[in-house]
Design brief:
The chain is of the alpha/beta class. It has 2 domains: 3-117, NAD(P)-binding Rossmann-like Domain (Rossmann fold), CATH 3.40.50.720; 123-273, Dihydrodipicolinate Reductase, domain 2 (2-Layer Sandwich). The chain has helices at residues 10-21, 34-44, 52-59, 73-82, 96-109, 123-133, 172-188, 287-301, 312-327, and strands at 3-6, 27-30, 47-49, 63-66, 86-89, 113-115, 140-148, 192-199, 211-218, 222-229, 237-244, 247-252, 257-262, 265-271. It has an 8-stranded mixed beta sheet, with helices on one face. The longest helix is centred in the middle third of the chain and has 17 residues, at 172-188. It starts with a strand and ends with a helix.
């Protein structure tokens, strides 16, 4: 396979490392920022370009890895479909209608587009899914979930106004909501939106909102309170408490534990271990991202969309929930 990684920011660099970890060597990069492109060429020993057409003509890719800001994903995905190039793209914040249109376009051309669903590859969500499927705490009644990290800590090396997370349409909170809902809805189903609050409550100098708080009703009358924020100082926050008819599950990512309580007693502690250290400057292990790339490559190699746990139709459903949260 000949890969063209489009967008060479933090995620583009991560995907290059993933491909190298999987022993792929025909990797090329494109970024319209010449300085960034040249840095990646030197650092990762791959050929890069700052002109898109030049990158296509030289690399002749049969796979795109789209790592641009979210509002640019569909431009390159549509190009890929026209040229019959299979592609992987990071989590998007496009509209439900545009995502369905892209899905229809994909199907008519027999090209495969795989949207990212990285959280499904993390150890914590996988353990929670198994515990719930095994009914370890009986019927699920309610859960509370909070996730966030102080936005200037995302990329400590650059000002937040120099990349997409500070803009209204592509704000960090707005991006995180579907990123998290993807794995949550994979466990509990698609929810109805009961209530929401979206706003900017900090003094961060940006136009983007810094908190999304919403109440959802999942199938089987499961009620959830979810907070997504970019305000947590001193490290990232990811805490979940799930209440069941026979116990509860407590997920604390800071402590790297999932605790299973049966009635009033602590029954078992699961230690979260991704199996690999995080890369310098990144808070998460590389392993989930590598495994996601592996499944993507398997699906493309076998021309089998079912070998990857996400598609555009599912992404569209998640984005519809985001739209309802914003319009409530």
């Amino acid at each position: 396979m000949r890969f063209l990684v489009i967008g060479l920011g933090s995620m583009g660099k991560r995907r290059i490392r993933c491909l190298k970890k999987l022993k792929h060597d025909q990797i090329y990069g494109f970024d319209n920022n010449l300085v960034r492109a040249k840095y990646v060429e030197t650092e990762y020993k791959i050929k890069t370009f700052s002109n898109f057409e030049e990158s296509i003509n030289f690399s002749r890719p049969n796979v795109f890895i789209i790592c641009t800001p979210p509002d640019k994903h569909y431009f390159y995905a549509k190009y890929a479909v026209k040229k019959k190039i299979d592609c992987f793209m990071e989590a998007s914040v496009e509209t439900y209608k545009d995502t369905i249109k892209l899905s229809n376009f994909e199907n008519s051309s027999q090209t495969m587009i795989f949207p990212s669903c990285t959280m499904k590859y993390f150890h914590g969500p996988k353990i929670i899914k198994n515990l719930i499927r095994q009914k370890k705490i009986g019927n699920i009644l309610n859960f509370n979930y909070q996730v966030g990290q102080y936005l200037p800590d995302w990329h400590p090396w650059e000002n937040i106004n120099n990349f997409y997370v500070s803009k209204k349409k592509t704000g960090a909170c707005r991006e995180i909501v579907p990123f998290e809902l993807n794995w949550i809805c994979g466990i509990f189903g698609l929810p109805k939106v009961l209530n929401s609050y979206i706003g900017k409550i900090s003094k961060l100098k940006m136009t983007a909102d810094d908190i999304y708080h919403f109440v959802l009703k999942f199938p089987k009358n499961i009620i959830a309170n979810i907070t997504v924020e970019v305000l947590s100082r001193g490290g990232a926050t990811r805490n979940m408490i799930i209440l069941g008819s026979k116990g509860r599950i407590c997920f604390n990512y800071e402590d790297k534990t999932i605790k299973l309580f049966s009635e009033s007693k602590l029954k078992k502690i699961f230690c979260i271990n991704e199996g690999a250290k995080s890369y310098k400057g990144y808070i998460n292990s590389e392993k989930p991202y590598v495994n996601e790339m592996l499944d993507f490559i398997k699906a493309v190699s076998n021309k089998n969309k079912k070998m990857f746990p996400n598609d555009l139709v599912n992404d569209a459903k998640i984005l519809r929930v985001l739209e309802k949260i914003e319009n409530k």
